[in-house]
Amino acid sequence: MTDDRRDPDTGKFSPKFTDEELLAAIDDMEPVGTGEVADHFDCSQQAAYQRLSDLHEEGNITSKLVGGARVWMTK
After folding, report:
1. How would you write the pLDDT of the chain (75 residues) with one tens digit per residue?
2. Under a CB-based contact definition with an 8 Å cutoff, are residues 38 and 44 in contact?
3. Please, which contacts does 69-74 make with residues 24 or more away whose CB atoms are closer than 8 Å?
4. How many Å apart are CA 53 and CA 49, to the nearest integer?
5. CA 2 to chain centre
6. What are the two backbone dihedrals, phi and then psi, of residue 71, each rounded to the nearest 5 degrees?
7. Residue 68, CB half-sphere, CA atoms under 13 Å: how many?
8. Which of 17, 22, 38, 59 has the most CB atoms lying inside 10 A of its own CB?
9. How far apart are alpha carbons 5 and 36 in whole angstroms?
10. Which helix (H) or strand (E) holds 32?
């Protein structure tokens, strides 16, 4: 069985969804939790959190703690 998302040169997997798709989903659902993003894109919470954290570090989204849970919003 092969995985079409694995780069044959680096062995890394390409994401199931683009940053643009992720930003659009955040915009539609905001404020949105990591679990909701994971459910929406059918990925693990760890993968969703990593992608969200990367977008946050790049300055594309904001986040805050609400009741002990982190929520994400577009700028």
Report:
1. 345 655 567 665 557 889 999 999 999 999 999 999 999 999 999 999 999 999 999 999 999 999 999 999 998
2. yes
3. 69/33, 70/33, 70/34, 71/30, 71/31, 71/32, 71/33, 72/26, 72/30, 72/31, 72/32, 72/33, 72/34, 72/37, 73/26, 73/30, 73/31, 73/32, 74/23, 74/26, 74/27, 74/30
4. 6
5. 24
6. -120, 155
7. 0
8. 22
9. 23
10. strand 32-33
- Contact criterion met (CB below 8 Å) for 25 and 39: no
Token pair listed for 35: 């679990």
Greatest CA separation for the chain: 44
